[in-house]
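Worked Example 4.2. Read the sequence first, then its structure tokens.
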Amino acid sequence: MFTAFIRKQLTLVWRSPAELQLLLGMPIIMMMIIHFAFGGFTGGGPAQVQVALVEQEDEQLAVQTFLEKHNVAVPILPITYLKQELLANEQLIKVTTIDAKLLEEAKKSNDYSAIIVIGEGFTAQYLASLFSKAEAPTLAIYLNDKREFTPLIVQSIMNRYQQQFTLHSTLMQQGIITENMAIPQASFTSTMETVHQRTPLTLSAYYSFGISVMFILYWVGIMAGQALFERERHIFNRIILANIQPALYLLTIALSTIVLAIAQMFILFVIVHIAFDVVFEGLLGYAVTTLCIAIAVGGMAAFYSALNYRNNSYEASSIFNTTFIAVLALLGGSFFDVSATVPQLAKLGHFTPNGAALQSYLLLQQGVEFVHIIPYLVTLLMLAILFFSAAVRIFPKKGGLTWRALKN
């Protein structure tokens, strides 16, 4: 009989396609929006910032002519330096050199985030501004206003290039660099590693888990509303006549929610793995975390079902789905990394069901050992026990038809 009650709950959900679309369709749509909004930055792979470079002069010839004419020995190659600045960010930017004849066509197309045009005489003007205090050269840069984010990266690089020009010019004017002084060309290598020796997170992974743990909370309001619907249709009265205790009835709601929540997370994880290349190494940790957050959501569903019964209203579950989930998502870090802006608020978010689960998932993504996620798993299980105990305590014992009266 206990299994039959769980099957009944699952059947009622299956007959509600709108709710299934919300819990599966909406998170997928949000993940896709975030993924395409950030382009290549979400995956950590090749960049999606396309930059076109148009050269209208021969730099080597221009430098040689200038050096012979002014008898200086400073090996400054402004165009080469600009290319180095762009190529130094090859993980973010792809530079394509195009012919000057294709400039107008490139400007009309939407293929490039920015087009940098190096006009004829740029090199000579650049060097003259350093050695002869002549007017500074001008670069023509066309930013694609149809792309709201990626042109800012190009603009940042160009600002740094401008700062380097200003530095060289100032040093020349102060006599720190003279005409016959050779500027040493520094050559060095560097390595990057995280403080805790963990694998860096990608935005794809962060928002895949952040959105998933947010939408799993919607089962709370849905299952609580479904429970009150049973009372209105007198299904609950027949359950009482079948000698089912309140705690057992609430347990069927919790277990049904657990099954549905696990199924939802499994489907979402398969999709993000295929679509966004999110890797799941060490499946045990992900499985245990998913089970724990599903148990916590099940306990919350039982609690809000009891509230709905006690108030004979859908108000509690409706407020949770329309307001509380947004608050929990904010505290738990589903929208952005709260710890980077308000560390104290982030610590509070770790005690929310979605926040604890998100931290566990993110640590697993960084390759930590299972022992490091145990505190978050304990938090989830404690929340489940707390909510379920409160549900049993506040569940109404008297009403239009009392539990004991119906049994007799």
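Now turn to a second chain, presented in exactly the same format:
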Amino acid sequence: MNGDIKYFIASDSEGRGPDRESNGSASEITAWVKVNFTATEVGGIIIYNLAQIS
């Protein structure tokens, strides 16, 4: 898994994070991750482990 993306950090309620836009590929990726992976909260930030499909 060298070089693979292992984690995805979702934006918080204030819009900080990778899916700041409500349209476009960032929101499509976020929607796909939310459907296919389990969320874990760490220090108030939602993180998805991309190595563990839900």
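Notes for the reader: Residues 19 and 29 are 8 Å apart (CA to CA). Helices lie at 25-36.
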